[in-house]
Amino acid sequence: MNSKELRRGGHFLVHHPGPDEVFIREDFGEEQRMMFQAAADFMKSEVEPHLQRFEQGDYGLVEDLLHKAGNLGLLGLSVPEEFGGMGMGFNVSMLICEEISSMTGSLATAFGAHTGIGTLPIQYYGSQAIKDRFLAKIASGEWISCYNLTEPGAGSDANSGKTMAKLSSDGQHYEITGQKIWISNAGFAQVFIVFARIEDDKNISCFVFHKDDVQGLTMNAEEHKMGIKSSSTRQVFYDKVRVPADSMLGQRGDGFKIAVNVLNAGRIKLAAATNGAAFKVIGLMSRYANERQQFGKNIGEFGAIQEKIARCTALVYATDAALYRAGDAIERLQNALLAEGKSEAEAKLKGLEEFAVECAILKVYGSEVMALVADEGVQVYGGMGYSADAPMEAAYRDARISRIYEGTNEINRMLIVDMMLRKALKGHVDLLGPARKVAAELMEIPDFGSEEPTGFLAPETKILMQLKKANLLVAGAAVQHYGTALVDEQEALMRLADMAMEVYVLESDLLKTQRLSARLSDQENEIRGILGTLQAHHAAEKCLSAGREVIMGLPENDEQRMMLMGLRRFTKTPSVNLKNLRRKVAQYVLEKGKYPF
């Protein structure tokens, strides 16, 4: 990949990378694998024996586990070594997040809130004095951090918060007054990152303080939640809480920018968290299907159960491929900017900002795949799946929040399209030229011999290339018809996002398997190839459905009919016996008794 392409996020509809241009989890080195094993050992010894306690509001258990994780270095992976962290790359921090989040949403939420939104604003925007005071103790787990942004009237619209910060007459302090809700870790946090508006500023500002240094800070009792029951979640009230003027993160009015930039990291790491949980649930499903008998045989022998296991496995495999591809793209750009002399904060933030589209894609796709996996897990368990005595009930409830926090999936879908169009208008990614070319192609006689991929997964790669055209066709038509009013067509935006997500995830899936092919046995290549086939047909169906809905919202005329014909042409797939392919995948997973990839 050339230097320009390396630096551009959101260009996957028009760029066609090769397998050597992506990173996959199998590429992690020995040091990273050792860190992963340390996290796995921690989960096995410290978390797995206490899984029932997480469903009983045992906040002390979660607090204790955070301290223990800090002692092992698991809270400071991305914190620079000068502040007591390990200074490791972005991708390995996702790998560890995946494992720490794999068994219970309570610990996953607390860990994510502390290491992500509870650390990064200080690391990226804090003054040297603030970093010196807070980072080492946050990285070690001595101090737990919480992030106070959401308010009763300011959820998705974070910049509309009413919490106020008033500067003292001598300019030495701010008095913060207001209310925050849904604050993770608040019940046992020492460090508070809080957003407030100074006077009538257009944008909010951000402050950090230690709880023991202030007065006027109070909280409601712990919230009673559907899931993540041992994740501390409280309302926090500020009554003229005095904080030093130099406790501000960034500059006055930087709060909204801080919130947005930190959310990019939070979104993709949430995908890592749901990925780890999905691995574990597929393992539970397969083992239960091997043990539970009905009608004289294991339920795993029935096609209906095999279909569920195969469907979930194919989607999780594809999500995993996209996750580490995107994480590596972020990390490579960050490293390139550091090599050019950018500051650590500037380089890290720019890397995340550039690939914000991919972060939003992974957040939505990963959380919705996990929702499906948890739901099918309950179904495989049958009546036992609905019982609190079995693990599926908790997994199902915990999974639900992942489609809400770090920006709802609806908001993220609209952001995906908005950010891609902004990139196109700024000339960062040429989407409009290729879209016009695809529209013109509809008037031509199809050349079935052109652009024919060859080699391993060639039919699936052809489907991918055609789906990219379908994306460009439908998006181009929507832009041409609605113009700037497209921003108000939320249904169309969400369907366009669905199409874009399917392309990115499918491409990642195929590239991962192609990259691995020389390292694997014939059987492993066959199974992974089947996963690619299943994902390709899934993506084509999703793109056809979503694209049809967008086009049918346009004026009914000859142009609309032509676009519908073009959409069907670009989403066409070869005849394949998907049933038999799913059975092969399911039998492989059942034989292993776990998610085996």
Care to describe what's here?
By secondary structure, the chain is of the alpha+beta class. It is 56% helix and 9% strand. The protein has helices at 3-6, 30-47, 59-71, 90-100, 105-117, 120-125, 128-140, 255-291, 303-339, 344-354, 356-381, 391-400, 409-425, 432-441, 458-482, 490-516, 522-552, 558-570, 578-592, and strands at 145-148, 164-167, 173-184, 191-198, 205-210, 217-219, 233-244, 248-249, 293-294, 297-298. Helix 17 (522-552) crosses helix 19 (578-592). The protein is globular. The model has no long low-confidence stretch (mean pLDDT 95).
Low-confidence stretches: none
Radius of gyration, whole Å? 24 Å
The arrangement of helices and strands along the chain is HHHHHHHEEEEEEEEHEEHHHHHHHHHHH
Q: With helices defined by DSSP (H or I, 4 residues minimum), what is the helix count?
A: 19
Strand content: 5-15%
**How widely separated are the two ends?**
27 Å
Mean pLDDT: 95
Structure classification: alpha+beta
Instruction: Give a count of the beta strands, DSSP E runs of length 2 or more.
Output: 10
Secondary structure layout:
Blueprint: H1 3-6, H2 30-47, H3 59-71, H4 90-100, H5 105-117, H6 120-125, H7 128-140, E1 145-148, E2 164-167, E3 173-184, E4 191-198, E5 205-210, E6 217-219, E7 233-244, E8 248-249, H8 255-291, E9 293-294, E10 297-298, H9 303-339, H10 344-354, H11 356-381, H12 391-400, H13 409-425, H14 432-441, H15 458-482, H16 490-516, H17 522-552, H18 558-570, H19 578-592
Parallel strand pairs: 1-4, 2-4
Antiparallel strand pairs: 2-3, 3-7, 4-5, 5-8, 6-7, 9-10
Helix pairs in contact: 2-4, 3-5, 4-8, 5-8, 8-9, 8-11, 8-12, 9-10, 9-11, 9-16, 9-17, 9-19, 11-12, 11-13, 11-16, 13-16, 14-15, 15-16, 15-17, 15-18, 16-17, 17-18, 17-19
